[in-house]
């Protein structure tokens, strides 16, 4: 019995020392290196309990031109709609812009809406946005304060809802929704819906109170690459109430159905 115990006695001080070491030292050793891992103290400095910290404060940029198309029908025109942002996971500046260029109408640009927004996440899928919108085109210019949300809704719909208030006591609301249905890895069908609402008639902008218009589209695109996608489709726009009346007074119609060809691009 004595011969079996005595050989183990020299190991007792080492075992006692190991037991007295802090939990972190037991794992990483006195040098801060994980046994057999080759990680030194300098590598693990500032690490979280479950590994190195995620670099979520880096600044990134992204831009996309969702609508970059010619619309053909009774008087053809070019239509654009896109947005770009710069920032990190928590703070971003976003630029949104859209409008129409009509070469058959003295080269006028109309429906020009441009927004500069600060955004911050409020949930896993939605960002809160606040900023300013400027209506800059051949019509009467307007400036609005903007507040809204943008993100990914149930069913993976990309949605944006924004309210606006001008210094002239006008208020407006805009909703936008789009969905990418992948028929194949490269062939994508995208339905899109947009509505615009105003609280007052604005003859300078050609809009009436209430629901002003609904702009819908169905686009079939082919992703030559993820950043370069030609597409074809149809777009239908219907105007309501005072907006429809103003259009008729100028010789227009309340319904507008067009065939379109475009190129979607992003960076």
From TrEMBL:
UniProt-listed InterPro entries: Cu-R_B_prcur
Keyword Signal: yes
GO MF: copper ion binding
GO-annotated cellular components: cell outer membrane
Example GO biological process: intracellular copper ion homeostasis
Signal peptide feature range: 1-25
A Pfam family that the UniProt record links to this protein: CopB
Keywords: Signal
Highest taxon of source: Bacteria
Protein name, per record: Copper resistance protein B
